[in-house]
Design the sequence.
């Protein structure tokens, strides 16, 4: 496994936020920022990040309230607009002029927003099993365990719990795979017991599943703003979060996007699957290391125009 350094940076409201920094080669063309899902943290990318770090600097973040990052005093800050501001702070703290984004689930929603509001900073986006609409079936499943969290006596018990929850979504996983997943998602307390690795209050802004699903629909206007930004959309063939109809509509709205379907996976692929890894490698390899003057000028004008529309009239219509 490629080595990394645990680093921390301040959020705009004073939280200490965690990131795993894989240095990559000295001549890396750009940085790849990996943003995890709702209950996950930087460890979610511990199989794919070392692979990517052979070519790029890789920063794997733990969003506020996850992993080693500080928990927020105000649980209502656990929402995508706040995560976007936190990511803007990361760009500033690490002196990043531009980066490619790899967003899993919630991290993909954050990536869509970042691409819409700051297109001059984004070289390209990988959306991992997420789209502007969230399938109610998957949303209900996720909402059912987020607020409960997890507590168990051992890593074996934690692996059993994950397999009972997600076994249908990862049908070819071995016992070692389930144990590895448990170590990514959970933490061990001083007394040896295993617990969820996030602030249970991240569930509070969720509301009920229907409300959360309706809110997600409003991301279509932001997604449409990714015109001109390279996008790779990855979907687990058995996903209950990214529905086939939504996956197809994403291509209709933005014909330029590339798509990859991962067999034997539900929500979400870990991007270490051969099909997913090959697609991500090829996509990133074709991204420019910088934006040419004309592209930068066009994106700057689009950014200014969009931000003015947001300030004057809220979220624009689809």
Sequence:
């Amino acid at each position: 496994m490629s080595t990394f350094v645990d680093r921390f940076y301040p959020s705009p409201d004073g939280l200490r936020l965690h990131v795993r920094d894989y240095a990559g080669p000295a001549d890396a063309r750009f940085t790849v920022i990996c943003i995890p899902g709702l209950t996950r943290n930087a460890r979610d990318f511990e199989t794919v990040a070392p692979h990517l770090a052979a070519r790029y600097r890789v920063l794997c973040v733990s969003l506020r309230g996850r992993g080693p990052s500080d928990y927020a005093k105000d649980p209502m800050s656990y929402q995508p607009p706040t995560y976007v501001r936190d990511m803007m702070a990361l760009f500033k703290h690490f002196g990043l002029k531009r980066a490619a984004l790899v967003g899993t689930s919630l991290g993909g929603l954050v990536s869509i927003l970042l691409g819409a509001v700051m297109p001059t900073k984004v070289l390209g986006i990988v959306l991992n099993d997420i789209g502007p609409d969230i399938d109610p079936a998957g949303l209900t499943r996720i909402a059912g365990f987020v607020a409960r969290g997890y507590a168990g006596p051992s890593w074996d018990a934690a692996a059993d719990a994950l397999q009972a929850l997600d076994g249908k979504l990862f049908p070819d996983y071995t016992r070692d795979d389930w144990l590895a997943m448990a170590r990514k998602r959970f933490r061990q307390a001083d007394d040896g017991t295993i617990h969820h690795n996030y602030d249970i209050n991240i569930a509070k802004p969720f509301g009920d599943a229907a409300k959360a699903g309706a809110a997600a629909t409003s991301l279509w206007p932001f997604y449409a703003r990714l015109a001109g930004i390279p996008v790779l959309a990855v979907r687990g063939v058995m996903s209950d979060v990214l529905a086939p109809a939504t996956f197809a509509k994403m291509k209709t709205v933005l014909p330029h996007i590339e798509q990859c379907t991962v067999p034997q996976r539900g929500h979400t692929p870990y991007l270490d699957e051969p099909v997913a890894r090959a697609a991500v490698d090829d996509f990133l390899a074709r991204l420019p290391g910088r934006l040419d003057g004309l592209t930068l000028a066009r994106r700057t004008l689009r950014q200014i125009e969009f931000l003015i529309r947001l300030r004057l009239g809220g979220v624009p219509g689809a």
